[in-house]
Specification:
Layout (H helix, E strand, L loop, with lengths): L2 E6 L2 E3 L20 E3 L1 H16 L3 E8 L5 H10 L3 E5 L9 H15 L3 E5 L10 H9 L3 E5 L1 E5 L2 E7 L4 E7 L2 E5 L11 H7 L4 E4 L12 H4 L25 H11 L4
The protein binds flavin-adenine dinucleotide (FAD).
Amino acid sequence: MSLRIVVCVKYVPDATGDRKFADDLTVDRDDVDGLLSELDEYAVEQALQIAEEADDAEVTVLTVGPEDAKDALRKALSMGADKAVHVEDDDLHGTDVMGTSLVLAKAIEKTGYDVVIAGMASTDGTMGVLPAILAERLGVPQVTLLSEVKIEDGKVTGRRDGDSASEQLEASLPAVVSVTDQSGEARYPSFKGIMAAKKKPVESLELDDLDIDADEVGLAGAWTAVDSAAERPARTAGTIVKDEGEGGKQLAGFLAEQKFI
Ligand SMILES: Cc1cc2nc3c(=O)[nH]c(=O)nc-3n(C[C@H](O)[C@H](O)[C@H](O)COP(=O)(O)OP(=O)(O)OC[C@H]3O[C@@H](n4cnc5c(N)ncnc54)[C@H](O)[C@@H]3O)c2cc1C
């Protein structure tokens, strides 16, 4: 039977653009360009490598996000994924990690899976907890933050590199995996891949399709709330130290004054 791999990919505001909060203190996603989170490209890459090793495998990419999030799905499809699932619903506005993990879990159960692969963190929210919450919701083992991952004989194995030691981990399938930016460079989509992606299926789902009530998600269902946000102060000109023999001392004095040393 085919190995069913689901990759969770997030459409995020471009970090090089000007990012702002909207009036309700949610991230303003309308006035900024977005893209597939770079950290999720590593997850797509590992899924494709696992699929290439397996005799028979299917890679589905899944996102919860606004209409434009289809761009993230298209990029993953052009890298080589087989099909995509897009969960989009007006009631998702303001959903936090608890709601997002609920929606992803229900969509994954509906799609069917043997292994779920996620990134180590998104480049906007950067909570890094979603894969663990997802595993709990699905009731399957989690093998997170892997810099090397393999699937063989109904098991996922991998290496997690810490500051002082590396761990070798193993779990039976089905399981949730997350991979780090050390797991291997993500491939660039080829021209052929970009053309092929236009014809690959993208299934659209709403909350009703997943039996999720509006009050379980959105700002009302969120477990976290942003109380206030302020504009970052404008940059000041800074202090220039001219070295005329006493530069080192002046630098040390400046750092001490600022309480850096
Ligand atoms: C329209 C909309 C509005 C939102 N508004 C808010 C808000 O106001 N406040 C708030 O806290 N959150 C909001 N969210 C959810 C938020 O953007 C995150 O998806 C969620 O909080 C997870 O946190 P994270 O990105 O820090 O997860 P992390 O734990 O850092 O993510 C780890 C991995 O989980 C996967 N992942 C994360 N998010 C998604 C996703 N959406 N789809 C597919 N895979 C994913 C990726 O593989 C990622 O690498 C909103 C989402 C949508 C779609």
